[in-house]
Amino acid sequence: MQAFLITFCISDMDLECANQETVKQGLLARGWPPIKGFSKHVKTKVLEFFSQLIKLGQDDPRRVVHSLKAGLALTLVSLFYYYQPLYKSFGVSAMWAVITVVVVFEFSVGATLGKGVNRGLATLLAGGLAVGAHQLANLSGQIGEPIVLGIFVFLQAAVSTFVRFCPQIKARYDYGLLIFILTFSLISISGFRDDEVLELVHKRLLTVLIGGSTCVIISVLLFPVWAGQDLHNLIASNMEKLGIFLEGFGDEYFKMPEDGESKEDRPFLQGYKSVLDSKTNEDALANFARWEPRHGRFQFRHPWKQYLKIGALTRKCACRIESLNGHLYADIQAKREIRSKIQETCTTMSMESGKALKELSMAIKTMVKPFAADIHIENSKSSVKNLDTLLKSGLWDDETDLLEVVPVATVASLLIDVVTCTAEIAESVNELATMLKFEVVEPTVSPEKPETGQPKIGIS
Amino acid sequence: MQAFLITFCISDMDLECANQETVKQGLLARGWPPIKGFSKHVKTKVLEFFSQLIKLGQDDPRRVVHSLKAGLALTLVSLFYYYQPLYKSFGVSAMWAVITVVVVFEFSVGATLGKGVNRGLATLLAGGLAVGAHQLANLSGQIGEPIVLGIFVFLQAAVSTFVRFCPQIKARYDYGLLIFILTFSLISISGFRDDEVLELVHKRLLTVLIGGSTCVIISVLLFPVWAGQDLHNLIASNMEKLGIFLEGFGDEYFKMPEDGESKEDRPFLQGYKSVLDSKTNEDALANFARWEPRHGRFQFRHPWKQYLKIGALTRKCACRIESLNGHLYADIQAKREIRSKIQETCTTMSMESGKALKELSMAIKTMVKPFAADIHIENSKSSVKNLDTLLKSGLWDDETDLLEVVPVATVASLLIDVVTCTAEIAESVNELATMLKFEVVEPTVSPEKPETGQPKIGIS
After folding, report:
1. How far apart are CA A189 and CA B86, in angstroms?
2. CA distance A414 to A418
3. What is the pLDDT of residues A158-205, one digit of tens each?
4. Could you report the per-residue pLDDT of B153-197, keeping only the tens digit for each?
5. What three-state secondary structure class fits B298?
6. What phi and psi values does residue A436 have, to the nearest 5 degrees?
7. Which of B155, B189, B410 sits opposite A98 (nearest CB)?
8. Do residues A356 and A286 both lie within one domain?
9. Inter-chain contact B178–A103, Cβ cutoff 8 Å?
10. Chain pair A-B, CB pairs under 8 angstroms
11. Does A421 fall in a domain?
12. I need a surface site. Which of A158, A400, A454, B185 has the fewest CB within 10 A?
């Protein structure tokens, strides 16, 4: 299968390229060399694919563990076939346990539990309703029976398919509705041939339960991956990424390009980009996390919505940073004298917001009340005030060209927006800290106090 | 099922609320009134749910059609059970056709085809390999056989599960790998009991093919929903949303709040927000669209990547607009005199970019070469130049407080960014137009020519 996929991917990517080559070389001139070249190309692609797989494993070793767990769960359930007494009681229905394991076993406990509960409940409900439908159809005689059953199957499939479009239901019960349609159809249709419908329902339910609980048990007991923990870490690390950008931004923006170095080779300044597209991932993790029981410092009814709120604010801040980043590499840069006038305040604003975000990220990670974050936010706010005073104090020459002020004014204004965003993030992290009763730990090293008083003028 | 889901949702949402009420009223005081209140509450929620369903249908009637199509496909396939000669040849295996229809039938043709092809090919490959595994296991004697089979099942499940983590494979072949694991396990395990493995593979493959082709035929022939068309429309409508914002922004920003109207009730200015989170949707639609055959003006190898490129640029522009939107409702607004100085140029920049985006959106929708867009972009670019001249010409008083200039400068600078983004979008739409050979239609009404010459001063 893998070999097939690789070939498929390669053929897909290189079709155009290969076509061009064919045309170039002419139909008659084709011979060994192109085939040799192609096989070399395939070799390179296969090697690339394997190195990508190795990287996937190194990036998150839990993926390797998950794969082994999936193999184990499937092998365990297949014992039903191998072990004579078990096989006798279930027969071919044991197949449902195997199917359940393949479909229900997911990366995180929450996703596995969600799918398992959905599958179990949907099988139970659909089984019950299908038995009812079967009884009703029985009343309509031999010719009427398939017609009545056909109508039932059509109606339930159409209605359930439509309900699956409802966003709230799609988020949590989509898989359940799919299994509802599947079980209802299978049992009501099979019932037409098989008089022992109840036994069929019973066997299907039992095998689904066995498959589902095997998944859940292995998922919870062997190196569990908690979606809640992942969401928690994702929110914290997204905040940290913004913090890293902001800490580095000031120096990078005000650095003069004369040292011959290109500004674009700063990978640490590009980390924030992944934050912009993290909504889907956050929503999915929050949906899975809702299914998870109490684990570690996470309760069953953990305030996941608050995490999503913090995530949304972080993305809003990332959007401002995207605009800031555009100014980092802009062709039109303000003159050195103008930039140096506000260099210190802007660098402080950026640096302090960055520190605050990193502090808040650390507070979430360690579940300790953010102590120094407020101080950093105060520092950044007082820098905003300093900037105001600086601008009011008319430090600018009369000859200063306003056109040259615009880029700097924009950066300053975006930084003010970032400070506001950071304050909003801090507020919602504090709300989370109150909800979850974060530990209060006195810091060993006292952070710098808020700056007040007269604005300082940049090194000009 | 639906009733269960509704109750589940409601209980979920209102648990806390209900708890508080219980506490308030005391355990003894509870009687009819709370139950009456609760049942009224449930009624309201059920009514809300139904009105939401009706809205879902009204918003996109294709959803209703899809549900009916799903019901029809399932009813058709269930004929296998009802019709004696068909049942005789397939027996219980006919179940696989039903399962295939339930799982494969998706909203768009591309998604259905993708799942169908994945399921068909994966069943074929896994069936073949499972027969091989079965032959190999046969050689190892009665005791060795289950052990060898167990090892095979474990290894293929673990390896395939791991390969599913690979992002490129996950995007297109995830379902295929799932079915590969499922079929290989089922057939190799069943093979242990059933000597007619080949017949089992043959039956499974045939029923999967019947189910899959039923889905594909109904999906393509009855009111088809093309993912490609949806992606095409989504990209165009996202651009239009940004255009609507930009067309309205100038007037909204420079309007004085004295007319007592709140600035926040402008729903047309909020449309851009959905653009920020459209990446996942675009990626999914592009993945589905790749499976679709030629339809209407879309070929099989349509340049979907170019659509994703335009989408990414649109999101980048939406990010700037998010920042602009922040300034629309900012507490600190620049003074009337300062604002009115750049009002005309900024309004033109915004208006012309908006018009260009709407024109580009229309060009994509109608697949006609964007004619007027370049003129609007030229207009917006010359407004940028006008702004530069205006700022250089020292029209500002010496007494002008720089602090009051900052918000206006920022808005102007963000608008300059928007103009740049719009030009980038126009460039990639033109690339698309060249790739797809968009029609060239001479406009009946000639749009305004680019403004050049001296900058105009705002009404002050």
Report:
1. 14
2. 6
3. 999 999 999 888 888 999 999 999 989 888 877 655 567 788 888 888
4. 999 999 999 999 998 888 889 999 999 999 898 888 776 555 677
5. strand
6. -95, 5
7. B189
8. yes
9. yes
10. 254
11. yes
12. A454
